[in-house]
Amino acid sequence: MQCGPGDTQDCGNAADTAVVWPNTQAQPGLVRLHDAGTQWAVIDSIGGGDYQWGVLDQWLDQIANHNVYVIQVFSWVPCWDAPTCSSPPTAPAGTNSPPSDLTASGSPAFNNFVTAFTQHCSPAGNCVSQYIKYYEMWNEWDLSFHWTGSMAQVYQMVAPAAQIIKTNVPNAVILTPSATPSSDTGNGFQADFQNWLSYENQHGKISDWIAWHVYLTAQVNNTTQIDTPENQWTNFNQKFLNIEQSTSGWANTPWANTETNYNGSPAPGLNYTCPTSSSPNPPVTFTAQDCAGMIARWQILHDSNGAASLDWYKWNETIGENSPYETVYYQMMQYLVGGKFTEACGFTAANGASTWTCPFTEQSSTQALWVWTPNEAGTSYTVPSGYTDYKDLQGNTHNVTAGSSITIGVQPFLLEQ
Predict the structure, then answer these.
(1) Rounded to an integer, what distance in angstroms lies between the CA atom of residue 332 and that of residue 293?
(2) 246-274 confidence digits (pLDDT tens)
(3) Where would I find the beta strands (DSSP E) of 74-201?
(4) What span, in angstroms and rounded, lies between the C-alpha atoms of 154 and 142?
(5) 323 Cβ partners below 8 Å, 6+ apart?
(6) CATH architecture of 30-338
(7) Which of 99, 125, 180, 393 could form a Cys-Cys staple with 328, CB 3.0–4.6 A?
């Protein structure tokens, strides 16, 4: 989950001063510190080594009380170290241009910040080096909103910093600067992604994981709307994976979709929400059941294809404080934790509807099968041999008989042997 102060629904208070941990039964296993008060331009807004650690200290103390992994995301150059200042809402003293002191050997200001950050401990004695092990080296480098420099300049800035992290943080994991399908470099997102992997191969590999961002967002006739997890997987994730797996030295690298939600833009009616029939004038609507089901289907598609993480931006606002979504997320967690997918999800199409299935071994070693259809009307499914019950995402178990027909829908069932 991504969390941040300053939004009463997104792990913060209205005064923009306190980190408030989500009070829900569904507790994701990782928190991603992006737009969370830990940006470079927020902590280092003044310059001269006068770092503002207050919000980071709150995070460290909260994290120490919760058993979660943590990704720190570097973003926004402080205005005092840049030729221009774009003043984004989440970092008013920050900008998207390369640092003024950046050379082929890196940015001394950024290196100093990363050194101070990784060596920092809260007054309560909770240290970055103990609790923050994962580092996304820049947020969405291929979007001019976040970076107006070249790809080579991103690498120049983050490569020395990655070594600093490795030195100061035991077992640190370096993630590539995140890529997006919305790349506006002019090359296209697949070329940008390929170019980054090739650039690390040519100039020195620094990354342990690959990071990209795919939302459930599509552009249709210049209109932003929600697309299904199944379509988004094919349109974007599978293309990222194909490039990773075909690039020398990267095929077995862990990967993560470190930022997702229903929609990533503030278009009317689509601000991190799934448009249902009651939403005000959205271009496409879904049933409330489908909106909840998308959360599970998106996670299952990622996990069955080997994702190391799937991180929801504004998780608490979208899921944690939305009871139907929170229930689905929580039950999905209970079924998935400790289990293992034996192959990627696949589908068969018949009579105008597709049926998706994913073989799964539960933590108890029970052989199981995830099954659903994106068809909101549902479809009939014949229970395979050996299966005796299925669990739904409301926490209920239903007995079945092999060869009988059940109606599957947009919220996955977990068939068990």
Answers:
(1) 10
(2) 999 999 999 999 999 998 665 544 568 88
(3) 77-78, 94-95, 134-136, 173-175
(4) 10
(5) none
(6) Alpha-Beta Barrel (3.20)
(7) 393
